[in-house]
Amino acid sequence: MTAKITTKLLTLTVYALLAGQAFDVLAQDQPTMKRSVLLENKVDLPTSEITAKVLRVEFPPAFKTPWHTHQGPGPRYVVKGQLAVTEGGKTHTYSTGEVFWETGQLMAVENVGKSPAELIIFEMAPAH
């Protein structure tokens, strides 16, 4: 091989190697989707006609609901704050980012934090 061809071949090889390394760096910098199961629960639906609702509930500091029931069971997600949930004779405290399952039984919820709390309710109930 001549010196010109060897130099060109060497230059192309270096460029190819650098391009490959640059691609690897770019690929590592790309954000990726993350998926986590927060709660899983088997549900026996009383009918095939179900209305699914998503509700946002805001609780001022020290607010306590009266005893109540919801139309159906489902997961609940604490967006912010700290809530004490009493259901089935037991009280559990849930904080920001936690998920719990509400059965639809008689219950009460109290904001036990010093700031407002927020809850997302995913409810599955028989259609009316």
What would CATH call the class of the largest domain? Mainly Beta
Q: What CATH architecture of the largest domain would you give?
A: Sandwich
Sheet/helix structural class: alpha+beta
Number of domains: 2
Residue-averaged pLDDT: 84
Q: How many strand units?
A: 7
Q: Which residues form runs of ≥5 with pLDDT under 50?
A: none
Radius of gyration based on Cα positions: 28 Å
Q: Percentage of helical residues?
A: 10-25%
Shape verdict: elongated
Query: What is the count of DSSP helices, taking H or I runs of 4+ residues?
Result: 1
The sequence of SSEs as H and E is HEEEEEEE
- What proportion strand? 35-45%
- Write out the CATH superfamily name of the largest domain: Jelly Rolls
Main β-sheet, in a few words?
4 strands, antiparallel
Through-space gap between termini:
85 Å
CATH topology of the largest domain: Jelly Rolls
Strand order of the largest sheet: 1-7-2-5
Compact summary:
This protein has 128 residues and is of the alpha+beta class.
Structure description:
The chain has one helix and seven strands; from the N terminus they run αβββββββ. The chain has 128 residues and is α+β, with helices and mostly antiparallel strands. The longest helix has 27 residues, at 3-29. It is elongated, with a radius of gyration of 28 Å.
